[in-house]
TrEMBL record:
Keywords for this protein: Isomerase
Annotated TM spans: none
GO MF terms held by the record: isomerase activity
Positions of the Xylose isomerase-like TIM barrel domain: 29-266
Pfam family, one: AP_endonuc_2
Protein source organism: Mesorhizobium muleiense
Protein name according to UniProt: Sugar phosphate isomerase/epimerase
Length: 271
């Protein structure tokens, strides 16, 4: 089994919106205090470090954290032809940022709101953006990965959507960040989906849902965490990072305490 490392995604705070009044340094402290080794941060939460990768690197070192990945999305959902150029400019900006952190990836979210027009036409547009971003990443030495979601009206929701996008995306240019919670909310066979596309896995987002698809604390829902770890560990390009992302009501009440609890849960799996 590969050496497992556990990181934390900052969306646990981002989902609070105006209820979170802190900044990136508060996130680093909470995540380090929670016992994590790494962080995945988003374009929304990077704050004052957005144009200061060297300063962010120093802050990470001080906190004892590694940048696992930088995640960003687009208002276009990567599904508008007229936005491809702008989306790729944004991709290059964050690829250049991530290039300052050895081993860090750039994660591109799927559409959380699909643009107007026939849904079937959107897959080729999204794939073009992902593939061209993958080419930019290759030139910069930064791996690119797609992160599907299960939010309302998303482009990559169920297994048929996954099959379709992976037909169009070049696996040598673009990897996959499977998100266990989103896969389960998409009513997919999680084990089969992970196994079928295991060669595309770069790292994993671990989170849980209950039987109704409501977000749950890790280990309190229906996610077979051990099976996920086993499949990922055997994946040829998995880098060892399990990134915990918590969106439950428990986390909304006390994000720092929730992510600390999840980190303790992972120790039960030897990670």
């Amino acid at each position: 089994m590969k050496d497992l490392k556990v990181g934390c995604q900052t969306f646990t705070w981002e989902m609070l919106g105006d209820r979170f009044a802190g900044g990136p340094d508060d996130l680093l402290k909470a995540i380090a205090d929670g016992g994590y080794a790494g962080i995945e941060i988003t374009d929304t939460m990077i704050g004052r470090y957005a144009d200061r990768p060297a300063e962010f690197a120093a802050a990470l070192r001080s906190a004892g954290l590694t940048l696992v990945s930088f995640a960003f999305g687009s208002k276009s959902g990567f599904t508008l032809i007229e936005s491809i150029g702008r989306d790729l400019e944004t991709a290059k900006r964050w690829i250049d940022f991530a290039a300052a952190f050895p081993g860090a990836l750039v994660s591109m979210g799927s559409a959380t709101v699909v643009s107007d027009g026939p849904r079937d036409d959107k897959f080729a547009i999204a794939a073009e953006v992902y593939n061209k971003a993958g080419e930019l990443g290759r030139k910069a030495g930064v791996d690119i990965a797609v992160h599907p979601s299960s939010h309302h009206n998303t482009l990559l929701f169920d297994r048929a959507d996954y099959d379709r996008i992976f037909e169009l995306v070049d696996p040598s240019l673009v990897g996959w960040v499977p998100d266990t919670g989103h896969i389960l909310r998409g009513h997919q066979d999680m084990i089969d989906t992970l196994t079928t596309y295991s060669d595309r896995i770069r790292y994993v987002h671990l989170k849980d849902v209950d039987a109704s698809g409501t977000w749950a604390m890790l280990g309190k829902g229906v996610c077979d965490t051990q099976a996920v770890i086993d499949i990922a560990s055997a994946a040829p390009r998995f880098n060892g990072w399990l990134v915990l992302e918590e969106e439950s009501e428990t986390a909304a009440g006390d994000p720092a305490a929730a992510v600390k609890t999840n980190r303790q849960t992972m120790r039960g799996y030897g990670a």
